[in-house]
């Protein structure tokens, strides 16, 4: 009898244990399933986030290129799983941006100046052999003007000889361009490297004679100058440049440009303008292997960016967007294949909307100048002056196209 009770007790205990364990087993199974689902969701989200992202490296936050990257992000972004996300990355600028596109993991594109390709090859021919195959340009964006902000006692470039001049940060586009131009002018200065904020402070305090900024006008940092600071922009004209010097090498390498009072009311007197030089700013891309995921993402970016190019002409965007010409060829550079493909497909549309391309207009413009000088007996213009007039002509033409498109 006692054995029967013992057996029944054991059975009852086992049943209780089974009923106690069964919910725990079920809970554990549910927990494992939940963890598996969470892991799948996490990995899937991680994959989707990376599959739509492309990066653009620019220089400092006050640079026009950073504003352009922000505008591109705002217009191109589509954060759906199969969309496109543009991520601006703040860098140093200049030659460092080119090297970031070449060597830095995670960088797809950058905003660089036209001369960077030539300067990098000159700096290290062995390292940068074949660079033309690795970095291609998508489009010309705008012109980067050469700004020389000087104290009141500096009226000519000769006045800067032996004085402290900020060439901006090391390897920045400002330093690269300033180094080349001052060498062409044969003017030696005491070079210092300050960012815009520090250079502006030291200029006001009289510690430096001038600061150099190469950026699309109007450059946001320079807009913080006030009239009472007494600073001015030093121009590239007969009054400020060294006399009896051949400036052809400068205008062979850079474009003529003009800065207006409306752009810098505290630095240029009302009704006046300042002549200077400029470089073309380009949007470039690393030429990933065709059919690779990153190449395909960049191809999708190009299609979306070019399809929406006229949205950038709105007044809410940076005024420099009115200078963009996606069809313009850049000598010495190779066009990124997806960009060339888009232009070939839309050639008729572009011509219908904008008329003849700028490239097609150049021969007609040169012929007009030749006929005009021949018929008036005037002296033929030098190449630099022809280039300056052609740039002014295209600006007027593009402004008319933009205003007509807005109607």
CATH class of the largest domain: Alpha Beta
Please give the alpha-carbon distance between the first and last residues.
106 Å
Q: By helix and strand content, what is the structural category?
A: alpha/beta
Mean pLDDT rating? 83
The rough form would be described as: globular
Q: What's the domain count?
A: 3
Instruction: Estimate the strand proportion.
Output: 15-25%
Instruction: Please outline the major beta sheet.
Output: 10 strands, mixed
Topology:
Elements: H1 2-51, E1 53-58, H2 64-76, E2 85-90, H3 94-103, E3 109-113, H4 116-123, H5 131-134, E4 135-150, E5 164-166, H6 173-185, E6 190-192, H7 196-204, E7 210-215, E8 232-233, H8 248-253, E9 255-260, E10 273-286, H9 293-307, H10 337-345, H11 347-354, H12 358-376, H13 383-406
Parallel strand pairs: 1-2, 1-3, 5-6, 5-7
Antiparallel strand pairs: 3-10, 4-7, 4-8, 4-10, 9-10
Helix pairs in contact: 9-10
């Amino acid at each position: 009898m006692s054995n029967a009770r013992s057996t029944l007790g054991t059975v009852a205990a086992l049943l209780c244990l089974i009923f106690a364990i069964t919910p725990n087993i079920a809970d554990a199974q549910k927990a494992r399933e939940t963890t598996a689902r969470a892991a799948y969701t996490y990995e899937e989200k991680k994959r989707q986030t990376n599959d739509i992202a492309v990066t653009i490296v620019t220089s400092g936050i006050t640079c026009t290129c950073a504003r352009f990257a922000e505008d591109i992000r705002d217009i191109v972004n589509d954060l759906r799983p199969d969309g496109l996300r543009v991520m601006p990355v703040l860098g140093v600028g200049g030659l460092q941006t080119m090297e970031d596109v070449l060597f830095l993991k995670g960088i797809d594109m950058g905003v660089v100046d036209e001369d960077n390709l030539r300067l990098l090859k000159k700096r290290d021919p062995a390292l940068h052999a074949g660079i033309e195959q690795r970095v291609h340009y998508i489009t010309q964006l705008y012109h980067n003007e050469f700004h020389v902000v000087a104290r009141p006692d500096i009226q000519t470039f000769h006045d800067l000889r032996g004085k402290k001049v900020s060439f901006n940060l090391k390897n920045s586009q400002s330093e690269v361009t300033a180094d080349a131009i001052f060498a062409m002018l044969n003017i030696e200065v005491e070079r210092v490297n300050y960012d815009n904020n520090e250079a502006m402070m030291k200029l006001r305090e009289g510690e430096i004679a001038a600061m150099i900024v190469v950026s699309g006008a109007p450059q946001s940092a320079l807009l913080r100058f006030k009239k009472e600071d007494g600073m001015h922009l030093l121009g590239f004209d007969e009054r400020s440049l060294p006399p009896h010097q051949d400036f052809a090498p400068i205008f062979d390498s850079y474009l003529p440009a003009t800065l207006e009072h409306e752009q810098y009311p505290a630095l240029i007197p009302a009704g006046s303008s300042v002549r200077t030089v400029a470089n073309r700013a380009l949007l470039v891309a690393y030429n990933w292997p065709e059919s690779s995921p990153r190449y395909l993402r960049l191809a999708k970016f190009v299609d979306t960016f070019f399809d929406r190019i006229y949205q950038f002409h709105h007044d809410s965007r940076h005024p420099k967007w009115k200078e963009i010409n996606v069809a313009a060829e850049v000598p010495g550079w190779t066009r990124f294949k997806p960009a060339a493909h888009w232009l070939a497909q839309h050639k008729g549309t572009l011509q219908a909307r904008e008329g003849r391309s700028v490239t097609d207009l150049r021969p007609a413009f040169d012929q007009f100048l030749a006929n005009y000088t021949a018929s008036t007996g005037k002296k033929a213009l030098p190449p630099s002056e022809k280039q300056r007039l052609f740039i002014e002509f295209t600006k007027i033409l593009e402004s008319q196209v933009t205003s007509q498109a807005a109607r």
